[in-house]
Write a structure and sequence with these properties.
Layout lengths: L2 E4 L2 E4 L4 E7 L6 E9 L6 E7 L4 E3 L7 E6 L4 E6 L8 E9 L7 E2 L3 E6 L1
Parallel strand pairs: 2-11
Antiparallel strand pairs: 1-3, 3-8, 4-5, 4-9, 5-6, 7-8, 9-10, 9-11
């Protein structure tokens, strides 16, 4: 399976970006899809998840600003990011977790988001 992210770029504080993850398999075959990010000099952190059931969770720092969604017909998972802050600067990764697995084990190559102040 392949995950390919797109949509990263350079924006100013307060602006928006929409990231997209194209999945080479039907996304309904996965227990959950997620977005993670890794800022310069920091460890990778979880951002948001969307489960096969439709449940959605976010890390506190992005609640109310980011929205994760999926399109089963297109096998894509998007992350709409509004009101971006410089602290959101990071490489954003799409990840997939299969049923019966306890972790996200399938990763994309990442897309870079830079938010200038």
């Amino acid at each position: 399976v392949q995950l390919v992210e797109s949509g990263g770029g350079l924006v100013r504080t307060g602006e928006s970006l929409r990231l997209s993850c194209a999945v080479s398999e039907t996304i309904s075959t996965f227990l959950a899809m997620a977005w993670f990010r890794q800022a310069p000099g920091k460890e990778r952190e979880w951002v948001a998840s969307i489960f096969n059931s439709g449940a959605i969770t976010y890390t506190d720092s992005v609640k109310g600003r980011f929205t994760i969604s999926r399109d089963a017909a297109k096998s894509t998972v998007d992350l709409q990011m509004n009101s971006l802050w410089p602290e959101d600067t990071a490489v954003y990764y799409c990840a997939a977790r299969r049923f019966g697995r306890s972790a996200f084990e399938i990763w994309g190559q990442g897309t870079r988001v830079t938010v200038s102040s």
